[in-house]
Amino acid sequence: MDRVGDLEVDQDLPFERRERRAELVGRSFLALVVVVALLGAIGAGGPLAWADAKGESIDVSYDRFTRRGATTQLVVRVPADARAGSNFEVDIDRTYWSRFQVNAVTPQPADVTILPEVVRYAFAPEEGADLEATFTLTPRSVWNVDGDVSIPDGEPARFWQFLYP
Q1: Residue-wise DSSP of 58-108
Q2: Which of 23, 104, 119, 145 could covalently link to 136 via disulfide, CB atoms 3.0 to 4.6 Å apart?
Q3: CA angle 114-118-120, nearest 5°?
Q4: What is the pLDDT of residues 116-134, one digit of tens each?
């Protein structure tokens, strides 16, 4: 026991300094988690959550962060001048596609062809109209996933998604 004036005080100043530092680190970590959540890196909403990728005559919008088992959307836009004959054709990388379960495709594709490296969707919208196709997906795996979406023989829109467990 140490004497402080007339009092006998049981204190451990080095321990108290370490405890204050640990408390500061803990509070800082919690503040960082709140900021990251508000920015959208933990789920839906926020400026980090939704992203766009552009390729040759194709735009893709997607959730940058999503959870395994949660529903997410991949929105593909192709201008009318990129039409292949009477249809729009959209190629999606098979490696990327294998990490997801496809729940719905809107509008309904006219044809789906599985090729060695891509899954090709053919859409037949009205003449002169742009294509906006929405793929509703459920992730089947976790961690980082790289994706490519393109029109045939076009430069792909490249993107990545992080799938939380």
Answers
A1: EEEEEESEEETTS-EEEEEEE-GGG-BTTBEEEEEEHHHHTTEEEEEEESP
A2: 104
A3: 60
A4: 999 999 998 777 788 899 9
CATH number of this structure's domain 50-164? 2.60.40.680
- Mark 31-69 as b/e (b = at least 16 C-beta within 10 Å): eeeeeeeeebbbeeebeebbbebebebbbbbbbbbbbee
| Pairing between β-strand 88-93 and β-strand 118-123 as defined by DSSP bridges | antiparallel
Tokens of 40: 């959208």
Q: How far apart are CA 125 and CA 109, in angstroms?
A: 9
Give me the chain's average pLDDT, please: 86
